[in-house]
């Protein structure tokens, strides 16, 4: 370890948690963890903005777990997420840490679309950590099944979406149920001006921003007529060494038909679409993570914030609408210093928009090498 690198212990992470991380091969904090953990441990209201895949979940979980009163059987850490899948992913990460150090803590995920009676049974265990969607948390609170008066730390993961038009009313309603002296930790891969303004009005947080680190992500384009794009995905899957890829499609794209075509050609594809049942979405994530599928066909809404390890290729079937969308999609690959590539399919009309997008990002966009 280099002399100028902090250790988790130097950041104030308890020895038990630091040892648990080391067993998982996590020995050095990432830049966002190095900046965020000490400030969060000190009780400040914070915004953390850092690229996807840089360890933001542990940046808030580690200092938060250290501050929970083990003897108080009440919700003390409340984590809100914009999608059900992200809420479950965070709950899994929290359970992994808790179990690794044998802490007497209970974690409960509360999301819409899941069996509410089962969630009510889970709340009878008096969890200290709750992750979930604002709407379900409000519902359970109004039913008298969930008390939030002991919450000490509120986390808004992907806060730019949580404070956007669709979710802000429910999120604000949850905030009104919490103690006034609770801490607020807000994190996102991007922190646009409107989201910062909303956060400032609610919490007056200090902003910690970590710029994009050097990655080994290559950015390519491939010309394909719109009607031929799924055929192009099929050919690219055979041509490129794709072990685990995510294919982004727009909401207007017939993704289910695309999956059918790919499967017909012998490609192991699954879909992650907002309109699908929660159990189908979970099964798709399990398949891609376990290697039973090689392609995940997804919309931006469904795939936002998900942590899928070792994604080596991202394919844009539909052109990203803006810089922010491109970065979120690209952030699914080349995570934690690993190599990855983004391939954008574009017809003749889309090429000009793609070049303009690349220019705004100062991105070197290359054509795929010849077969």
From TrEMBL:
PROSITE patterns per record: HELICASE_ATP_BIND_1, HELICASE_CTER, Q_MOTIF
Protein name: DEAD/DEAH box helicase
Domain of life: Bacteria
Organism per entry: Selenomonas artemidis F0399
Residue interval(s) of motif Q motif: 6-34
CC annotations in GO: cytosol; ribosome
Domain Helicase ATP-binding: 37-209
GO molecular function, one term: RNA strand annealing activity
DEAD-box RNA helicase Q domain location: 6-34
Keywords: ATP-binding, Helicase, Hydrolase, Nucleotide-binding
Sequence ranges assigned to domain Helicase C-terminal in this UniProt record: 225-371
GO biological process assignments: response to cold
């Amino acid at each position: 370890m280099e002399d100028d690198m902090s250790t988790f212990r130097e950041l104030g992470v308890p020895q038990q948690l630091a040892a648990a991380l080391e067993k998982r091969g996590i020995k050095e904090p990432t830049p966002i963890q190095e900046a965020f953990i000490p400030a969060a441990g000190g009780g400040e209201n914070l915004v953390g903005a850092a690229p996807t895949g840089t360890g933001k979940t542990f940046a808030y979980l580690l200092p938060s777990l250290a501050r929970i009163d083990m003897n108080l059987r009440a919700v003390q850490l409340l984590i809100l997420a914009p999608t059900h899948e992200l809420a479950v992913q965070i709950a899994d990460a929290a359970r992994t840490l808790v179990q690794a150090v044998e802490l007497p803590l209970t974690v409960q995920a509360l999301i819409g679309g899941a069996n509410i009676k089962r969630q009510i049974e889970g709340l009878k265990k008096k969890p200290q950590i709750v992750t979930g969607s604002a709407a379900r948390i409000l519902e359970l609170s109004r039913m008298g099944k969930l008390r939030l008066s002991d919450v000490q730390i509120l986390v808004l993961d992907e806060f730019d979406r949580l404070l956007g038009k669709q979710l802000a009313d429910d999120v604000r309603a949850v905030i009104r149920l919490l103690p006034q002296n609770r801490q607020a930790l807000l994190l996102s891969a991007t922190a646009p001006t409107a989201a910062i303004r909303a956060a400032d009005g609610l919490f007056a947080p200090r902003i910690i921003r970590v710029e994009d680190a050097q990655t080994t992500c290559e950015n390519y384009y491939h010309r394909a007529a719109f009607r031929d794009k799924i055929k192009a995905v099929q050919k690219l899957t055979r041509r490129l060494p794709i072990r685990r890829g995510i294919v982004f499609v727009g909401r207007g794209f017939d993704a289910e038909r695309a999956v059918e075509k790919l499967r017909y050609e012998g490609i192991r594809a699954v879909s992650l679409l907002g309109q699908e049942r929660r159990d189908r979405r979970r099964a798709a994530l399990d398949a891609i993570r376990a290697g039973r599928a090689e392609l995940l066909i997804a919309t931006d809404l469904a795939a936002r914030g998900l942590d899928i390890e070792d994604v080596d290729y991202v394919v844009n079937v539909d052109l990203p609408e803006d810089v922010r969308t491109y970065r979120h999609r690209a952030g699914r690959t080349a995570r934690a210093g690993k190599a990855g590539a983004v391939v954008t399919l574009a017809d003749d009309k889309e090429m000009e928009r793609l070049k303009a997008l690349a220019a705004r990002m100062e991105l070197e966009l290359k054509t795929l090498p010849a077969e």
